[in-house]
Amino acid sequence: MTPQQAAQLLEQLALGIDPRTGVSLAEHDACTTPDVIRALFIARNALQGKLEPARKAPVVRNGVTLANVGKKWSGEEVDTLLQEFQAGALPDRESGYTLLKAQRPDTTMVPSGQ
After folding, report:
1. What are the backbone angles phi and psi of residue 5, rounded to the nearest 5°?
2. Best exposed site among 38, 61, 82, 106 by fewest CB in 10 Å?
3. For the chain, where are the alpha helices, taking DSSP H only?
4. Strand 59-61 vs strand 64-66: parallel, antiparallel, or unpaired?
């Protein structure tokens, strides 16, 4: 069997067709579940040399598209966040999910007993 033949067989399974008979697969067949269908298409694409990373829909909260959700932070971003957090800056929820806002005197944490 060639990779092209294997890719065609996987595509038929993913489309819900028994490649041996051409008949639709039974409703409760394992190959008709969404995760298996996605896996079959990924395997078919891999055999055809079309590997593409899985794409997820953008995250939208309160009508704002958050394009960077799930992306790894750079070292510089982590350092900035830590420095500002240690300085007393708090996350700002009121103005559209900005990462940090400028430190205000009323947000400074003072250890108890001082």
Report:
1. -65, -40
2. 106
3. 3-14, 34-47, 75-86
4. antiparallel
**Cα separations in angstroms, 7 against 42, 46, 84, 96, 98:** 10, 9, 52, 46, 46
| Coil, strand or helix at 33 | coil
On whether the CB atoms of residues 69 and 53 are closer than 8 A, the answer is no
Q: What SS3 class is residue 107?
A: helix
Please, what is the average pLDDT of the chain?
76
Q: In a 3-state reduction of DSSP, which class is residue 68?
A: coil
| Amino acid, res. 57 | A
pLDDT tens figures, 13-45: 999 999 999 999 988 888 888 889 989 988 998
